[in-house]
Write a structure and sequence with these properties.
The chain is mainly alpha-helical. The protein contains one helix and no strands.
Length: 82
C-alpha cells in the first residue's frame, strides 16, 4: 500500500489581500448602515416620546383650567343668587 501524505489542501483557496480588504469594507459598510438605521429609530422614538409627554401635559393643564373655570362660574352664580 502506498504511503499517502497530504501536505496542503490545494482545493481550498485562501482569499487574496484585495479580496479580504473588499470583504472587510463591505462588512464595515453593512455595520455602518445597521448603526445608522438603529440610531435613526432610537432618535425617532425619543422625539415621539418627548412630543407625547408635552401633548399629555398640555392636555392635563387644559383640563385643570377648564375645571377651574367651571367652578368659578358656579361660584359666581351662587354669589348672584345669594
Amino acid at each position: 500500500m502506498a504511503n499517502l501524505s497530504v501536505k496542503r489542501f490545494s482545493w481550498v483557496t485562501n482569499p487574496t489581500v484585495w479580496q479580504s480588504n473588499q470583504a472587510w469594507r463591505a462588512r464595515q459598510q453593512q455595520l455602518r448602515g445597521d448603526f445608522e438605521s438603529a440610531s435613526s429609530a432610537a432618535s425617532s422614538a425619543f422625539a415621539s416620546a418627548s412630543l407625547n409627554q408635552v401633548t399629555g401635559l398640555g392636555s392635563i393643564a387644559a383640563q385643570i383650567a377648564n375645571k377651574r373655570m367651571q367652578q368659578q362660574a358656579i361660584q359666581r352664580q351662587l354669589n348672584l343668587l345669594a
